[in-house]
Design goal:
Elements lengths: L8 E6 L4 H14 L5 E8 L4 E4 L5 E5 L14 E4 L7 H4 L2 H13 L6 E5 L3 H12 L3 E6 L6 E9 L2 E8 L13 E8 L4 H16 L5
Parallel strand pairs: 1-4, 1-5, 2-4, 5-6, 6-7, 7-8
Antiparallel strand pairs: 2-3, 8-9, 9-10
């Protein structure tokens, strides 16, 4: 996967849970916005017809797997971290080693790149705090009041999930100045708050690339 990423602007989606969903959502959204993206998703995606494809455009959206440390060989321009919850301890040995791998993942982000993370998750929030200390461009998403891209009025039913999106001071788009702005609303065909957070992270990554939805 690293070799086929060569020469592309990689968006790497990492996290203990939600990687596949977030990668698929980001890929479908960017394609709908007119980008001929390359992608590699860890499952067959009905909306894409396959799990991987080489596109003609500059962007490559990839699910970045931490289970065996594979995500530490990529050099993404942008990274998404859905959550950090100790897993795969048969490989990493301890929770501390597992979390340290995500800290090393930050080092793989290219100069001038960015990281999106879900601030509602304690592990991802800690990682974003570290990213800021390292001088990375950070976009925090979630329901928390300090999220740059905030989910508001979450509605979950058996038929799907919807919420409103609020941009805090332009932080999610890279703009400067200004107060909170209601960006719009999101409706998903699947029920669950975790899917809403995945979609919000995908939205933030797409916006940060300059993609208009």
């Amino acid at each position: 996967l690293q070799s086929v990423m060569a020469g592309r602007d990689v968006l790497a989606v990492a996290g203990t849970h939600g990687k596949t969903t977030t990668t698929a959502m980001l890929t479908i959204a960017m394609r709908a916005a007119g980008h001929d993206v390359s992608y590699a998703v860890g499952a067959e995606v009905p909306g894409l017809g396959t799990n991987a494809r080489a596109g003609a455009g500059p962007w490559f959206v990839a699910e970045a797997d931490e289970s065996d440390g594979a995500f530490l060989v990529y050099e993404p321009l942008g990274a998404v971290v859905t959550n950090v919850d100790a897993d795969h301890l048969d490989v990493w040995g301890t929770e501390e080693a597992y979390r340290a791998a995500f800290a090393r993942f930050l080092d793989r982000i290219r100069p001038g790149g960015f990281v999106v993370g879900v601030v509602d998750d304690p592990g991802a929030r800690d990682l974003l705090d570290l990213a800021r200390r390292r001088g990375l461009d950070v976009v925090g998403v979630g329901e928390a009041p300090d999220a740059d891209l905030r989910m508001r009025h979450l509605r979950v039913s058996s038929s799907g999930t919807s919420y409103d999106v609020v941009v805090s001071g332009g932080g999610a788009t890279g703009a400067s100045g200004g107060g909170d702005e209601v960006l719009g609303s999101v409706t998903l065909q699947v029920p669950g708050r975790h899917y809403a957070l995945d979609s919000l992270a995908a939205l933030a990554a797409g916006l940060r690339t300059g993609t208009g939805f």
